[in-house]
Prior knowledge:
By secondary structure, this protein is α/β, with parallel strands linked by helices. The radius of gyration is 23 Å and the shape is globular. It has helices at 2-11, 13-25, 34-46, 69-81, 86-90, 132-135, 151-166, 190-195, 254-265, 307-327, 347-357, 378-387, 417-432, and strands at residues 50-52, 99-106, 111-117, 174-181, 204-210, 219-221, 224-225, 229-238, 276-285, 295-304, 331-340, 365-367, 370-371, 391-397.
Amino acid sequence: MDNYIKHKAEELEKSLVECRRDLHKHPETGWLEFRTAALAIKKLASLGYVIKMGAETNKADEMRGVPDKDTLAACRLRAVAQGGDAGLISGMDGGLTGFTAEMDFGGDGPRVGYRVDMDANDIAEAADEAHRPFREGFSSVNAGAMHACGHDAHVAVGLGVAEVVASLKDKLKGSLRLIFQPAEEGVRGARAMVGAGVTRGVDFLIGAHVSFQADHSGALICGATGFLASTKWDVSFTGKSAHAGAAPQEGKNALLAACCAALNLHAISRHAEGATRINVGKLVAGEGRNIVPAKALLIMETRGGSTALDEYMLGEAGTIIDAAARMYGCAYEIKVAGGSISGESDSGLADLIFETARAVPFYKDIVKMQEFGGGEDFSYMLQDVQEQGGQGVYIQVGADRTAGHHNERFDLDEAALCPAVELLSGSICRLLVK
């Protein structure tokens, strides 16, 4: 079976690159993945997978950081104009872009889940000849959006895996459930899909990311430990505007309240029990130089080596925000824009990935398990499966890259796509083989 999978993956190499480049050219950010999801659904349905979408796979009241109605409507129209199926996209109203595709092979076998994240970043892509996607004509055509984290490759690889596994359906037992997730950036999407039950009944769950810590072609990390729990807050301060020269005493300065909060948030004491992080990533305030600012928006995140440590950071952050607002006579509102929990890959499933990788010549620098040191909302799916008695693993497949993740010049070695399909297909089939 290993040889068949290798040759089948190699047959798909050209289409993998074409798919990745098409998605790279048409990036869609969180909850706006209308075109991406529609293209993937059409492909998977043609392979015989049963599709569930819309409210069946996205719990609306668990969705965080959803764009406003005008943005959703505009991006739906854009997706159709760029080749997305209008009928399918109509079933994603409100940003319900996450979906599942399942194939039942019959027999008494396990249900394997494979998570594929689809969203792009809120970044303007580099537009000069030194950047290969621009030079070769597949850089982003959607203003302010870019696949700077490799999720375009994730979708291409996921569709490749789906095709390879489907071609082996007579040799397998159990079922494969592909989970195409929106809004991973900002850790917003997995919770809504878990709430809708997409991981219910899954015995083995696999997630994967291109490059990141496996930062060169030929590298592979078979399992991740130590996901940082994280919470994303949007904090709105509301004061009172006034003439800055004639009546400054009548104003309540929301800008100063937000600045006070920002400085003191970064002064929170770290914790002896593990890693903690905080970052104010954006602060927007004010109208003009002679107006006391009445409104300010502070966008921030906390992280912790455990869920408890993240909760410690949140508690301290809440105290500081409240005090800063009261100091300047302002009101404030906190909206949760996203979040993730801590988690650990199961060593037994990482061992299976390791054994599969030994048969894939591309992977020469293989690490069985490594501390992740970042947040990933795959952790919600991982925890749900583990609480049901199942196992989960998060893999990092190596690829050379031109810049770090979330950088305007990010690009990756497309020679890593085919081996990733081989590795993931082989691992899934080892779990499902008769």
